[in-house]
Amino acid sequence: MAEITRLDTTAVDFWERLEGLLAWESVSDERVTTTVREILHRVRREGDAALLEYTNRFDRMSATAMAELEIPRARLQAALAGLPADQREALEVSVARLKAYHARQKQESWSYREADGTLLGQQITALDRVGLYVPGGKAAYPSSVLMNAIPAKVAGVPELIMVVPTPDGEVNPLVLAAAELCEVDRVFALGGAQAVAALAYGTETVPRVDKIVGPGNIYVATAKGMVYGTVGIDMIAGPSEILVVCDGKTDPDWVAMDLFSQAEHDEDAQPILVTPDGEFLEAVAASVARLLPEMERKAIIEKSLGARAALVKVRDLDEAVTVANFIAPEHLELSVDDPEAMAGRIRHAGAIFMGRYTAEAVGDYCAGPNHVLPTSRTARFSSPLGVYDFQKRSSLIMCSPEGATTLGRIASVFARGEGLTAHARSAEYRIKS
Amino acid sequence: MAEITRLDTTAVDFWERLEGLLAWESVSDERVTTTVREILHRVRREGDAALLEYTNRFDRMSATAMAELEIPRARLQAALAGLPADQREALEVSVARLKAYHARQKQESWSYREADGTLLGQQITALDRVGLYVPGGKAAYPSSVLMNAIPAKVAGVPELIMVVPTPDGEVNPLVLAAAELCEVDRVFALGGAQAVAALAYGTETVPRVDKIVGPGNIYVATAKGMVYGTVGIDMIAGPSEILVVCDGKTDPDWVAMDLFSQAEHDEDAQPILVTPDGEFLEAVAASVARLLPEMERKAIIEKSLGARAALVKVRDLDEAVTVANFIAPEHLELSVDDPEAMAGRIRHAGAIFMGRYTAEAVGDYCAGPNHVLPTSRTARFSSPLGVYDFQKRSSLIMCSPEGATTLGRIASVFARGEGLTAHARSAEYRIKS
């Protein structure tokens, strides 16, 4: 295999090289944009008819009415009932753990009264209706259903509509079982830009939602970008990343496998190790070389390691923290003696996995926190998917007559300073003389 | 003036007509897009040199070095010291009230331990550096500085960089004074897409930020849309809106002036009255006709009223709530007897102004809540600007050895079900046999 890039913070061009390695811009393809724009336009104008036509064409289906593309509840229940015991238990434990964690994210309305009786506050409400996109085919992950559906349900969203493409009529029973466990309200066998259009604009059959979440291919991502504003969307994710900070005292095989666990997602995935221990760095490189041939997804892992991975030697663990904050990784493993102290110094990361016993993989499935995390250094300004993404706030203001007088005088000075005299007079009407 | 549109919920085409009136799509202009793309590209590649050139050209300046375009602290202090007493007091009271309200939005980190010692939690951090865009010229509002700067400062953002264009060298002393009161860290005399580019990519002089907030013209909005992902941005706002729900017992002049206070912002602004009282509706129309000729911004108000306003007659106040939730207005006035009870039934609104004494205008300046609010029905899925927009979250997971065993077994079942064997093995390494 190609050598993994080695970087050393003592090199004069270190930061420049690191930044170059991290650079990621999704390719904007004129052809994709044009196709998606047309699909959105037609589904918006023609509704079910266009939706049926696109679905039959792209997913090689032969549906004659939209009713055939709704997957009935009974089929979800049957999928759940048909699962092997260990898979059902894994799903159930994970659902329970995710619910418990996410319940702590729920925000409540608040208000307070000032001395003159004026009330100020913030009212929290859940979104009315949310659309959940689940990819079909090889990337059909039941964990993705859990991670997107549970925060919406915990937020109190009354209606959750799932779309999942079923190319050639093939469905993944684990995905349907997960939908049943998460109490998804309706499921449609739809995918691609046409599914996004149906959710954003509504059709005769598919109800219009207020926000669309969930991962998808470039057509789905482009469509989500285009309907943003008409509906809310979650982030549009880049390739997955892991940064392992290690003091050199963890089994190098463990660290190598942790790097693999990101690399196996995608040829563009980015696994990085940062350590002050040069010998350990070489030991991990040796583990990588020894373990790689055993891996089922060897070809993908090898490409990711060759193109986007790095083994970074730092002066000390303080510098490792500096590098981690610069990278702002999606997943950050702190495989060190006192991970809690180190975590307190991390300013930017999607999720922090503390200690030698915390494999990133448990966070993907069942630890409790969400696996939808900010990628491509966006952890500098964004957060994991959470209950807060399915709640919104309305400011509350109720002036007492006295408050209207006090505040009206101030508002009047501002408004006249800004040349907005209707604002001024509207406030002045309420001033008691 | 043109008649204001009158709608009645008993008409068969009511909802269709209402939806038509609300429809708003910002025009995407090929010429603007091309211009902005070039400006972003050049500032990114050439830094200060391009920034100087564009600023001299677009703002008719003759700066020879970037240092001339930084507005020094002493000038902000002088602007504050030079304000008339009433303006200074208005600013100071407003800053104090905004800080008190926004302090309640601040989120804190949390964590909990499970029985086996596994720790789960969420760590909250402020963004490192934020850029605040303030428009120059006629739309130079000091209140805009307050509303964008204060939540960032309350969140704990260490560095706040403001940009404000100074066409022909002209600055608004109220804007500089507001920046001083809000403890803005640095101010540059820059505007347009070039200012957005400088903040997003950084130049030799302007530091790169993590998020850009604040209103601007179509060039600024387009530039913000294009740099989104490289940095965070706030929402891109549409025209301002007010919805007044009134039971007919408020002075019709007050309601007319409240409608004017939105209309005077912009010819595209949307003021709507909803009332079950037909006589009151006509009384408000009469007040509008009588008061309009007195208004300084009459021409703008008239266009807004003619094109986008509506007087809506509903069957009763229950139906008024239904209409309000359909519209999801930016500003909602509940000018009724029991506004608290009605507010509890509002699911979608940027800000709710309760009671006859609460003019929307006090919320624009000094009540405490933010005046940056979701427009164009996006209150269905988004919130006022707040402290939470300047904080972000990192998930925390620390498995005890026992937790690693329990969770590792579940993760392994999931991962093998999804065909991700590196995930499975990474978790299995930590299972105690």
TrEMBL record, chains A, B:
Binds 1 zinc ion per subunit. Pfam families: Histidinol_dh. PROSITE patterns: HISOL_DEHYDROGENASE. One of its GO terms (biological process) is L-histidine biosynthetic process. Substrate binds at residues 240, 262, 265, 331, 364, 418, 423. Pathway: Amino-acid biosynthesis; L-histidine biosynthesis; L-histidine from 5-phospho-alpha-D-ribose 1-diphosphate: step 9/9. The active site is at 330 (proton acceptor), 331 (proton acceptor). Keywords: Amino-acid biosynthesis, Histidine biosynthesis, Metal-binding, NAD, Oxidoreductase, Zinc. NAD(+) binds at residues 133, 194, 217. GO terms for cellular component: cytosol. Its cofactor is Zn(2+). GO terms for molecular function: histidinol dehydrogenase activity; NAD binding; zinc ion binding. Zn(2+) binds at residues 262, 265, 364, 423. Its EC number is 1.1.1.23. It catalyses: L-histidinol + 2 NAD(+) + H2O = L-histidine + 2 NADH + 3 H(+). Catalyzes the sequential NAD-dependent oxidations of L-histidinol to L-histidinaldehyde and then to L-histidine. Belongs to the histidinol dehydrogenase family. This is Histidinol dehydrogenase. The lineage of its organism: Bacteria, Pseudomonadati, Pseudomonadota, Gammaproteobacteria, Chromatiales.
